[in-house]
Amino acid sequence: MKKLIALVLALVMVLGLAACGGSKPAEETKPAETKPAETKPAETTPAEPAAPEQTVLKLWCIATESDSNRPAYLKAIEEYEKAHPDVKIEMEAFENESYKTKIKAAMMGGDADDLPDIFFTWSGAFLGDFVDAGKVFCLDDYYKPYGDQIPEVMLANTTYGGKHFGVPTTFNIVAMFANMDMLAEVGWDHVPETYEDLTACCDALVAAGKIPFGCAGKETWCVTEYLEPIIIKTIGYEALGKIFAGEATWNDPDIANAVTTFQDMINKGYFDPSGMALGNDEVKANFLAGKTAFYQNGSWNTGEINDASFKPAVALFPVMNAARSTYNQTIGGPSDSLAVCASSKNVELAAEVAVWLGKEICHYNYLNAVGLPAWIPDYDTSSLKPLLVDIADLVASCEGMVLFGDTAMSADPAQVYLSYVSQVYGCEIDGDGFVAGLTNDLG
Amino acid sequence: MKKLYSNKWQILIFLLPALILFCGVLIAPIGASAYYSFFDWNGFGEKTFIEFSNYRELFTSNAIGFMKALRNSLLLAALSVGLQLPLALALALALGKGIKGERGFLSIYFMPVLISTVVIGQLWLKIYNPDYGILNVFLRKVGLESWTRIWLGTKKTALGSVFVPTLWQYVGYHMLLLYAGVKSVPPELREAAMLDGATDGQVNRYIVLPYIKPIIKISVIFAVTGSLKSFDLIYVLTNGGPLHSTEVPSTLMINMLFLRNRYGMGSTIAVMLIVLCFGFALLINAIFREED
Amino acid sequence: MRNKSRTAQTLIYIGLVLWALINLFPVYWMFTFSLKDNAEIFGDNVVGLPRHWLWSNYISAMKTGKMGVYFLNSAIVATATILITLAVALMATFALTRLIWKRQKTLNKFFMLGLTIPIHASIVPVYVTLSRMHMLNTYWALIIPYSAFSLSMAILVCTGFMNEIPRELDESACIDGCSTWGIFFRIIVPLMKPAVATVGIYTFLQCWNELMFANVFISKSALRTLPVGVQALSGQYTTDWGPIGAALVVATFPTLFVYIFLSKKIQESFIAGAVKG
Fold first, then answer.
1. pLDDT tens, residue order, chain B (292 aa)
2. Residue A24 pLDDT > 60
3. pTM value?
4. N or C: which terminus of chain C has fewer CB atoms within 10 Å of its end residue's CB?
5. In this structure, are strands A55-61 and A118-122 parallel, antiparallel, or unpaired?
6. Out of 3.30.470.20, 3.40.30.10, 3.40.190.10, 3.30.70.360, which CATH number does the structure's domain A172-332+396-442 have?
7. Cβ atoms within 10 A of the Cβ of A55, count?
8. Which residue segments constitute the domains of chain C, with CATH numbers given?
9. Cβ–Cβ below 8 Å for A415 and B259
């Protein structure tokens, strides 16, 4: 008898333990699931008494508390939920770098419950890899109600095989922001528009003990925000676009010249040497605090820089080779997008919501000056921040644009490319080494 | 008794939870990794069988830089055995002899072990900050302006700067292990030697060290495999940069899996890591056996 | 001779104190800058005590950073991991050291393989398994892998302790009519109490630090653990050091307080593991 009881006890114990993998989680995780209710309100919209037929859509994005896109996301979601009380959008925001890990692991794991319904993605190859694997839902039918409210060119980066898979939430270019107060101290009343002027201005700044540029070496994409504009201003947008698309090789002596230009600027002390160890936020903070005179980065920074304590101005990097390029060419395009998981249980609703949200996030991003409109504005734009109007003018006169290199290229070549870019910034290789290495590794 | 303890079913029941947990979480994934290491696969699309190409590429391609990452972690292992352990041993010997404030020192030295690695990483990021970090501020204050560096941002100093907190954090861990050994030396042995006129150094050399050899062996194994496995602190401090100068196999693996979409290659690195860790553990065991 | 040894003694003391300072200083600095604003941290008061004690940094860390929630999550995960590891390891060790069957040694070596396997090497396969079992985004997604990775060390420690329990106890219990389970629960488990603390400490060290699994397996922000929380917060406040410092303190000091009160016990248990393992 005793033995029997012991055996039963033991079985209970074993089952209890084994059940960690089986039935138990359902009840055991309850405390975990109730907790969000207590802490959520700050994260998403307040938990209302849920109507029984309410559909919940999960949205994953990178709009964390410090992200300038966050207000637009919250506002768009709030409006949608108000108009559709039967739909609840649960937004989870992740820090940029860890998001890449998360979304890829989720796509690999592949279980519908662990994937969001709608997810943030970069356009180009990042989304393309998921599309190729059949993980993304085609949005063609859901764009129909919107007619021509979004120009086809804005969808080009999320179109694969003639089908639309993404909704752009903003549109950005690389721009050169300047602190006019600092420039005035060395006798400049406008942003230099030729390379000779730019070097003269930088030399004057260096002579006055000031640092012209800041560039975050810890995040290589920030280096591309400097290098790519120089390259496009040397070889032109058509040639660069072909290289990024893999239709041409890197073997172009003018690219080596562009790299040399960049490294000349570094060697002449135009760049803050601390930048190599800093992240983008820190470099931006240095610019906003008046430590550097210029900051070349995406137009999503416009709002913040517009409100800085100094007089800001914006321009494009000057032309390096007039035979191949013009001033009105730049790096940029719609990259940040929303997409819908093909495995979503409410895939049709998710698609409808994604397109709607994309349009509205774009709307509020524009009004908040954290991006330019990919969708044609159908709202009042008279109160835009002045610096944003300047950038919009630059875009309006734009002749050609090439998407950010690391977004345009697929994951593996993009990392190879970034690795060479960081070697350029560290002056480990020269222009010829850059061209030879990329030609060799990427063909 | 013997009959009672030989019941096959009971044995199985006692072992089952451990076997399920161990095989499910450790062994099966290794099997999966070994399998995927023979494929060219991005993790979600079509996969192609490519035999040993991943392994070949891993050891020959400069673009991947595995050999460099491996060199870095072997260097860390060497420093760990050559610097961290001797320091830990010296502290353990000094404290184990019985000294005033022994307990207090012990508690302080073990403290960093209890702090989360991410916290240590964030803290050292602040210490190394080129503009406001305490290290450069200190150097400037004492007039060594020329010694200031962009510690984590320059290829020359980054690796060393990453190693310092890595080694520092676990000195206490090894110190306490070794201290335990030193304390377990029977006092009679020590006294007898002292009566024969042996100095402290001689007692340590001829009595204590041979006695605690098994613990030293464990410490060496932990130090070496720990170095090969190191990830969190490097991930927080530099994530392998600048210019891949602080890359170790683990950071490279995560890079392959999640940034470069090369799941097959990531699995290959995982397999190599396990083989290396296991190989070194066996090697260290063999070396210590040889000495006996 | 005596003089010489006194000098040596002093030198040893200087060395010990120096190393103690090296260990204490970062913690002190972390505490002081958690109460300063950037002007003080970056200005002339780098190492001194804060001039104005800025407790608002802590409010930022707790409110925006939700460090309290993360700490609680970490504590729940760590406790459950320790309990499960302990139960599983005790059972397995009993079978490995007491019960009579062939290949005990082989299986023991098999479990010891786990000591050398890097946790990151299994991230994607484990993710897929957890996903299939619908366990992602629950505490179990961390508890189970952490337990598995702590198991080898726990078995190693438990083996040391269990071998010291005299086998005569089993014999006499058997004669008294105890079953195997009776012996396990009534004789062995109560005598293994010292091992509990030791296994607890080693397991704690293993799972308190872990970053990568915690980042990938948990999506709900309300379930995040400390390492992920600290990492996310410092991403948000890159240039505002005060709240980061506060978050680091919140993540560290509770453990340190427990440690200060229990340091003797903790050290002894840790040491027991070293000697017996």
1. 677 888 888 899 999 999 999 999 999 999 999 999 999 988 888 889 998 999 999 998 877 889 999 999 999 999 999 999 999 999 999 998 888 888 899 989 999 998 989 999 999 998 998 888 889 988 988 888 888 888 888 888 999 999 999 999 999 999 988 998 888 888 888 888 888 888 888 888 888 898 888 889 989 998 999 999 899 899 999 888 788 899 999 999 988 888 888 899 999 999 999 999 989 989 998 998 887 6
2. no
3. 0.84
4. N
5. parallel
6. 3.40.190.10
7. 16
8. 2-56 (no CATH), 67-276 (1.10.3720.10)
9. yes
- Four-CA torsion C62, C213, A418, A62, nearest 10 degrees: -40
Tokens of A147: 């007619």
Q: With respect to residue B20, please indicate whether it lies within any of the assigned structural domains.
A: no
Residue of chain B nearest A18, judged by CA positions? B17
Q: What is the domain extent for residue B226?
A: 65-291
CA distance B155 to chain A (A): 8
Interface confidence: ipTM more than 0.90: no
The answer to whether residue B169 is domain-embedded is: yes
Whichever domain contains B122, its CATH number is: 1.10.3720.10
Q: Is the pLDDT of residue A351 over 90?
A: yes
Residue position matching structure tokens 């730019």:
A198
Q: Name the superfamily (CATH) of residues A51-171+335-367.
A: Periplasmic binding protein-like II (3.40.190.10)
- Tell whether B10 is within 8 A of chain C (Cβ): yes
For A190, list phi and psi in degrees, rounded to 5.
Answer: -145, 165
Cβ burial of C127 (10 Å; 0-12, 13-18, 19+) is buried
Q: Is B87 left (phi over 0), alpha (psi -120 to 50) or beta?
A: alpha
Contact between B111 and C270 using a beta-carbon 8 Å cutoff: no
| Token pair of A286 as six digits | 């240095």
Q: Is the pLDDT of residue A257 over 70?
A: yes
Distance of residue B34 Cα from the nearest chain A Cα, in angstroms: 17
Which among B43, B153, B260 has the least Cβ separation from residue A276?
A: B153
Q: Which of A29, A101, A110 sits opposite C138 (nearest CB)?
A: A29
CA distance C66 to A195: 49
In the prediction, which pLDDT does A49 show? Answer: 52
Query: For tokens 């039963």, what's the residue?
Result: A8
C128 with A64: Cβ contact below 8 A: no
**Residues of C with CB below 8 A from B231's CB?**
118, 120, 212
User: Residue C219: its chain A contacts at CB < 8 A?
Assistant: 60, 92, 94, 102, 114
Among chain C, residues having any CB pair with chain A shorter than 8 Å are 63-64, 66, 69, 84, 87-88, 123-124, 127-128, 130-140, 143-144, 177, 179-182, 185, 215-216, 219-223, 228, 231-232, 235-239
C135 touches B: beta carbon within 8 Å: no
